[in-house]
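Friendly challenge for the regulars: who can give me the structure tokens for this chain first? No prize, just bragging rights.
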Amino acid sequence: MTHPRILIAGGGIGGLATALTLLQNNIDVEVYEQASELREVGAGIQISPNGNRVLDHMGVFEALKALSSPTQGKEIRLWNTGQTWPLFDLGKAAIDKYGFPYMTVFRPHLLQVLADAVQALKPDAIHLNARCNGFEQSEAGVTLHFDGAASVSGDALIGADGLHSKIRAALFGAAPPDFTGMVSWRALIPMEVLPEHLARPVATNWVGPGGHVVHYPLHAGKVMNFVGTLEGNTWSGPPWVSPATVDAALTAFEGWHEDVQTMIRHAPSFLKWALCGRPFLDHWSQGRVTLMGDACHPTLPFLAQGAVFTLEDAVVLQRCIRQDAQDLPTALKRYEAARQERAYRMVRGASDNTSRFHNPILANAEQGVAFIEREWQQTAIGSRYDWIFNYNAITAEI
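First reply, four minutes later:
Bragging rights claimed.
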């Protein structure tokens, strides 16, 4: 077996990134996506220098940069008074320190540049309307099964099928995700309708007791991405996303600063997302089958690393497969060993940020100021982020 054939379940960001980097290294792939078209739900994502380092390695950084929004910096604001603190520069300072900038991008744009690059190398690599329902494996290979379609065989299978992964369920048992009690209110707001003082190329994080709000520009500054998260909610179960009204969002964020209320009033509509997680797995791989991304390390979006460390997974997985192409079970175990500690550290870090973003002490303005100035002083920021941004998936030990 000179060139293994890798099956990928899931055509999201992780699945396409993995397909791209494998194809670039002469490893054949087939991607199976259950949807009728390639699409990403959600809205904006932040891609930190460690993610852009990967995208540059894959040759798609410049294409995505052309679609991204120039964002000058990050700031933090207190939920009720609006007091503001600068956090860090996202452009030149980030490049000087980490080698790459920090970008805010529209999720579908990232998916599209990855899909275009995959199809440029193998036009028929992506199969739509392919709903996986299980697999079988032997010492010789893996067979992937679908609803209403013929099975396919390959040398290994990667489960890149997200939080509700069928591949994870088949490997380790089915279980519903764990609802965290937190709900995010998401909206895309046309920049042109916002007051001038809010229509700025800045990523802003409002912190408050029991919740926080993040907003930053997308679509070359034409759209403001708004995400507000609150604790103490109930959710009846799937589906984990539901539409919501502007009036309901105003009620949910009652008492927050007028700038937050203004943004909500100018939103065309909202989607509510139940934030869910899953327990850590001792292993991600069995034989010729492994998991990546949200299938094995779903995370709260409070470190802005969910998509980014899935991109890291893709490159490390490719490197391991290339190194042990004649022994894929060993390759998958090597990948798991190389990624698991870092991935779970990120998940814990995102969870830890809940207590910073939602701390009850923020209800008191004077105590809140002291808390922010302690938790977001430069040394503390560096200790939380430098180890993330400096990581190089292309050269990390495997």
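The chain has one domain: 5-176+278-389. The chain has a mean pLDDT of 94. Your move, everyone else.
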